[in-house]
Amino acid sequence: MENISALKNYTDQLLVQSKKMPVLFTSHGNPMNIIMSRDEHPFWNALYHLGIELKNSYDVKAAVVISAHWCTNGTFVNQSAVQQQIFDYYGFPEAYYKVHYHAKGAPEFAHEVKKAIPQAVETAEWGLDHGAWPMLMHLFPDADIPVFELSLDYYAKPEYHYALGQQLKSLRRKGVLIIGSGALIHNLSLVREKMQFNDMTPFGWEADYDAWLKKQVDQRNFEDIVQYASSHPLGKLAAPTPDHFVPVLYSLGLSEPGDDIRYFYEAPPLLPAFSERSFIIGG
């Protein structure tokens, strides 16, 4: 009980910063690229330089990742003091399991999430999955920013995810970098069909849908993005399951009037049914 009381007293005293933290939506990349260096992969390089910019411009106390790869029934927040690295992919060559990222957790900030989202359940039964650590190892390569995850309620409606993002706005003024990590286009079954024939060229529709999504973000037409399954004919094809798409709804829900939105990585889709378009809000 003393530990719980001490944690509550600490979080009650967390200082509100004068400078509002930005928000990210980022792809976490194609898992096949995990062992590639920043020199080999432009997306990793973009994340690296963004991390330098963030640390030079803001007092980043912690980061919370809403990862496409922690899907739950309900909403959970990880309060571990030390984060387990989870290799939640299978059948890859041995080198993919020898990449390590040793990050600390941030229990005091996980408790802040719980305060902002009362229905969230605090747990120590997770860590950093491959929706988080491959991206973080380039964004913060020294693992000197405490980090933790907020899960995705797989069965919730898109409006629920957007509303949770809105509820987290107070953390932007307490030094917390909030990162939605997924992919705006992600249809793994279509990718597998192409892989059978050793063909990894895009289908062609990816560029059209990517351009449409960019237009909605630029025009702040967030309602059509929330209603992605019905607002565009390609919505269900690009995101047949919610896990990789809905992290963007948290990021958009966290935006405030006057926030700029800048794409720190955008390139024509180079793989079938996949997008690495990523942006920063308010930075």
Number of strands: 8
Order of helices and strands: HEHEEHEHEHEHHHHHHEE
Number of continuous helical runs: 11
Overall average residue pLDDT: 94
Q: How would you describe the overall organization of this protein?
A:
By secondary structure, the chain is α/β, with parallel strands linked by helices. It has 11 helices and 8 strands. Helix 1 (2-12) packs across helix 3 (107-116), helix 2 (42-57) packs across helix 4 (133-139) and helix 5 (158-167) crosses helix 11 (247-253).
Q: What is the topology?
A:
Layout: H1 2-12, E1 23-27, H2 42-57, E2 62-72, E3 76-78, H3 107-116, E4 121-123, H4 133-139, E5 147-153, H5 158-167, E6 176-182, H6 188-195, H7 205-218, H8 222-226, H9 228-231, H10 235-238, H11 247-253, E7 261-265, E8 278-281
Parallel strand pairs: 1-6, 2-5, 2-6, 3-4
Antiparallel strand pairs: 1-8, 7-8
Helix pairs in contact: 1-3, 2-4, 5-11
Summarize this structure as a short list of keywords or feature phrases.
283 residues; alpha/beta; 6-stranded mixed beta sheet; 11 helices; 34% helix
Task: Give a summary of the structure in a few sentences.
With 283 residues, the protein is of the alpha/beta class.
